[in-house]
Amino acid sequence: MNAQQDLAARHEAVDRDPESYWLEEARRLDWDTFPTKANRSSFDEADFGIRWFEDGELNVTVNCLDRHLAERGDKTAIVFEGDEPGEGYSLTYAQVHEEVCRFANALKDCGVGKGDRVAIYMPMIPEAAFAMLACARIGAIHSVVFGGFSPDSLADRIQDCGAKMLITADEGSRGGKRIPLKANADKALEKSPVEAVIMVKRTGGDVAFVEGRDHWWHVLREKVSADCPPEKMSAEDPLFILYTSGSTGKPKGVMHTTGGYLYWVTATFDMLFGAKDNDVFWCTADVGWVTGHSYVVYGPLANGATTVMFDGVPNYPDFGRFWETSNRLGVTIFYTAPTAIRALMREGDDWVKRHDRSQIRLLGTVGEPINPEAWNWYHEVVGDGRCEIVDTWWQTETGGALIAPVPGAVETKPGSATKPLPGVYPALVDNEGKLLEGATSGNLVITQSWPGQMRGVWGDEDRFFQTYFTTYPGRYFTGDGCRRDDDGYYWITGRVDDVINVSGHRMGTAEVESALVAHPKVAEAAVVGMPHDVKGQGIYAYVTLNAGEPESEELRKELRQFVRQEIGPIASPDVIQFAPALPKTRSGKIMRRILRKIAEGEPDKVGDTSTLADPAVVDALIEGARSA
Ligand code: WT7
Question: Which residues lie with the beta carbon below 6 Å from any ligand 1 atom?
């Protein structure tokens, strides 16, 4: 069977008899108890719930490590590439297995057990993967917090999930700069204490050490056994919590489970990247995001592939870093974000062409819509027109890719994530929820559950249903707008809710607003997305100052700095426009549509303003936008 026939057979099989298809597919994993049931999910309010392979039992690390030892024990599992080119090393499956077992025993010695939450705030070093896998080994639930988040953001997440322990490093090192992870962690722990801290020595920088609470990993490592039997877990036991931004309130703890999630990342990694024994797979995402969970750690390791962990940035020491490193490490499959592609494209082809890329055979992209210009550059310049482009659409909530071209089976079109994978049923609906047929645009929903779907919002049972299943009852709402063409291809157009996608990172406008209004000089703030050449979207903030507070360039800087401190550098507004007033309806609701149009530089398209309490506000805003 060729790839095309195989894919067609899968679609046919899952449409015809889903239960048999999924149970057959479950054989991709090693189970302690093989499941007898596949899908027991409902999107309806009356019997709402998502459950997959529910009577199955397994351990994630057995699948990611133990089962490879007999045949691939000496195969490279993780290639670590540090911030400085060539600063790194490789670890075999046998070595990673040992480190994970040791780390798991260290967690146990610190009092962590099944069901306990462990926060991880780390650089992109192998120990971050050890820490995640160590949790999975003993049934603890990890919550990785991106190392770029502020102490406050870390504290909120620790508190929300009730983490018992924090795993961190002394410092990170990115683009030649040090990142004070432990110092940030110490600040966070003042607000949200934990029982124990394990700290990995990365840079050897000077850090505080709290006796009785803090432990050095390299010290613990010597004291513990390298033998740690895996905990047998139910398929529906939580594997991890990962916080992500929504359109309202604080980030929510997206919860994924053991069986369904692991199956989905295992299957999609295999279908989309099909890593063979001599492949080296490099996904440039940080483990602080879902892409790092699914396609740096769990997906590749469950498939016995070689995965690269990169602790640097695309422009350090120069703009050729990705290609120099790919060549040196023998990377054959490369997966990155459109924002990185656009940033590098801007620097010219020479940075690419000076490095041999002939070993690369597949190029992937994820995180935001990729514009055809960037797609073509990736294809022609980076891939020399040779490599297929795998544009994968998915979300933190989906666990792994849902819409993406299976190489060799689905013809690509620049800018389209193409078609759904087997067992994924997307649909487009209008704002009233009416199902749209044929070539059209609408809101993207998924009509049936898939194994990698999130199972809940941590600590808030109702929020999962309320957030995703009430806008269009009976369907999962993605929050994305989408077009479907005559060939049935999907073209994601971006978020239609109050979420913005900055360099592939998700930000809730509400979060940035609440950071801004926390500043003593700010009375009110409204945040919207704006088009940005490199980042995809930038953050545009309208800020109303307290009465009598003078506007100044300095205050703009101060506000940016303030948001960085409150949330992290990724939330820093690109534009701050001081606005004497915001456009509100008579009932006091801010009309964001108007703010979006002004931020997009299309003030003539603000539309009907007659329902505003004071329509004159709009002219003042348009005037103000010119100088912002
Ligand atoms: C949002 C999810 C998927 C892991 C990284 C981001 C946008 C993601 C694509 C793509 C167009 C995309 C969507 C989605 N998005 N991939 N290939 N084409 N848009 O995960 O932080 O949960 O963000 O990213 O808008 O809803 P996330």
Answer: 244, 290-291, 366-369, 391-396, 417, 478-480, 492, 494-495, 501, 506
